[in-house]
């Protein structure tokens, strides 16, 4: 009986990770297909960026609300609803006959992706209460999250070249249906707390996060010091402040402020913003470096990213759980961040005529091993204080900071690299390399800030004896 129960847990994890992978792939699989989409549907250069943004804005804006809805209505119910919306929207994306239809479908996709992914981490924590099993499960989840971006870039190129851009969306149909049926079969039913949340708070936080993500993704078009960026950014911050004030006063808050007072939750989210910002910037800039400086084509660039995914998988699928159990998540996180820092520093010194094996691969392996080590440990720390009643909200918060960190990192590093390159008289390989070096240097600084935060935040002298056992 015990064996069957454990098998059911791991089958449930497989269903949750399949949903996670499908949603993460959709954030990157589109990038390679953008030229084909523009040629087929007639997108303008400025409108084409909204194929990405129309997905990111609702995704980043709804994660926190969706996580709380999972606690209130039942996480399985919310996960299935989001998965259904995402799958139907994928069908509409694949059949899109005009720019307007594709953008609307991408927005709905973002809604479905946020609703389903927001509760996954909370469900995993509930499924695996034992520390050793939880560490293994979070390692698998972290691998799926971390490797999804690299797999998406490769899959987008293969599907677009061998079939058409429509299939980057249509492929989600069989995956979505199979995942839905598996989730219905294996996930346990949950009733939720049944307590209603303040609707005004929901409006405030959703508007604040959507507006914040919109402001960040438009920075490259308007600049950090523009009236557009400063104005919309100020409104977003004001809405977020109003939301926090409302949480302190309402008897039934959407985000109980006690969650933010948890040392592990607060520290893990700060570290994650810095870490994800650096890694998203790395994924974007290193592909440009491979293509525009080293002369790789799109398929070669995609294949060059595979060592990162392989290294992440080799570490996070099993080894990270043993490391967390033996040494504690805090020490493992610090070690992983150290490797990530080394990888970023190596890339910041990559030469103009680099050989892949000698000059690029060592950095890729350091980044892959470091990320595969750090992320499972960070997830253990982030969810270690989550109660069953708040695990969905904590999961949504973790996913929200990841999205905000990714959007910030991509915007900051991309703008800095482009500005450095533009300062040259013409975009030569040397000028491009100088811009990418600056981006990787800033990425290294972000990882260094995350490392310092982890060392200070979880210093043994600041933890209780019970916390030291976990960390």
Automatic annotation (TrEMBL):
Classification via InterPro entries: EmrB-like, MFS, MFS_dom, MFS_trans_sf
Limits of the Major facilitator superfamily (MFS) profile domain: 12-462
Sorted alphabetically, the keyword list is:
Cell membrane, Membrane, Transmembrane, Transmembrane helix, Transport
- Intracellular or extracellular location(s): Cell membrane
Residues passing through the membrane, by range: 48-66, 78-97, 103-128, 140-159, 165-187, 199-217, 223-245, 266-290, 302-320, 332-352, 364-384, 396-418, 438-458
Q: How does it sit in the membrane?
A: Multi-pass membrane protein
Gene Ontology MF term list: transmembrane transporter activity
Question: Short name of one Pfam family for this protein?
Answer: MFS_1
Cellular-component GO terms for this entry: plasma membrane
Query: Where mainly found?
Result: membrane
Superkingdom is: Bacteria
What name goes with this protein? Drug resistance transporter, EmrB/QacA subfamily
Biological source species: Allokutzneria albata
């Amino acid at each position: 009986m015990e064996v069957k129960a454990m098998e059911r847990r791991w089958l449930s994890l497989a269903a949750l990770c399949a949903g996670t992978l499908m949603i993460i792939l959709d954030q990157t699989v589109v990038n390679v297909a953008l030229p084909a989409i523009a040629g087929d549907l007639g997108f303008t250069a400025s409108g084409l960026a909204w194929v990405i943004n129309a997905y990111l804005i609702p995704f980043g804006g709804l994660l926190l609300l969706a996580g709380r809805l999972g606690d209130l209505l039942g996480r399985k119910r919310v996960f299935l609803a989001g998965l259904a919306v995402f799958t139907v929207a994928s069908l509409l994306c694949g059949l899109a006959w005009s720019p307007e239809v594709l953008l609307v479908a991408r927005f709905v996709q973002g809604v479905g992706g946020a609703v389903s992914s927001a509760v996954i981490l909370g469900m995993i924590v509930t499924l695996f209460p034992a520390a050793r099993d939880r560490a293994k499960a979070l390692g698998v989840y972290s691998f799926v999250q971390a490797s999804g971006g690299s797999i998406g870039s490769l899959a987008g190129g293969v599907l677009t070249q061998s079939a058409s851009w429509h299939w980057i969306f249509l492929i989600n149909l069989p995956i979505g249906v199979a995942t839905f049926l598996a989730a219905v079969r294996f996930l346990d039913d949950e009733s939720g707390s049944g307590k209603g949340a303040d609707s005004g708070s929901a409006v405030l936080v959703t508007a604040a996060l959507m507006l914040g993500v919109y402001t960040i993704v438009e920075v490259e078009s308007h600049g950090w010091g523009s009236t557009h960026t400063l104005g919309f950014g100020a409104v977003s911050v004001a809405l977020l402040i109003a939301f926090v004030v409302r949480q302190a006063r309402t008897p039934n808050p959407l985000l109980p402020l006690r969650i933010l007072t948890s040392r592990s939750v607060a520290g893990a989210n700060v570290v994650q913003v810095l870490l994800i910002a650096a890694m998203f910037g790395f994924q974007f800039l290193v592909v440009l470096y491979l293509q525009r400086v080293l002369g790789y084509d799109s398929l070669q660039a995609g294949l060059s990213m595979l060592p990162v995914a392989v290294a992440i998988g080799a570490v996070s699928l099993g080894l990270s759980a043993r490391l967390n159990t033996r040494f504690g998540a805090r020490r493992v996180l610090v070690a992983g961040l150290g490797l990530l820092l080394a990888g970023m520093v190596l890339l910041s010194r990559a030469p103009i005529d680099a050989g892949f094996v000698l000059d690029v691969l060592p950095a890729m392996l350091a980044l892959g091993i470091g990320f595969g080590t750090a992320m499972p440990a960070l997830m253990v720390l982030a969810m270690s204080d989550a109660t069953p009643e708040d695990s969905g909200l904590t999961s949504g918060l973790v996913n929200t900071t990841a999205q905000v960190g990714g959007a910030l990192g991509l915007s900051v590093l991309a703008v800095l690299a482009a500005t450095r390159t533009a300062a040259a008289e013409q975009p030569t390989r040397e000028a491009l390399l100088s811009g990418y070096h600056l981006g990787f240097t800033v990425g290294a600084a972000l990882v260094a800030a995350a490392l310092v935060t982890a060392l200070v935040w979880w210093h043994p002298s600041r933890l209780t004896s019970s916390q030291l056992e976990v960390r």
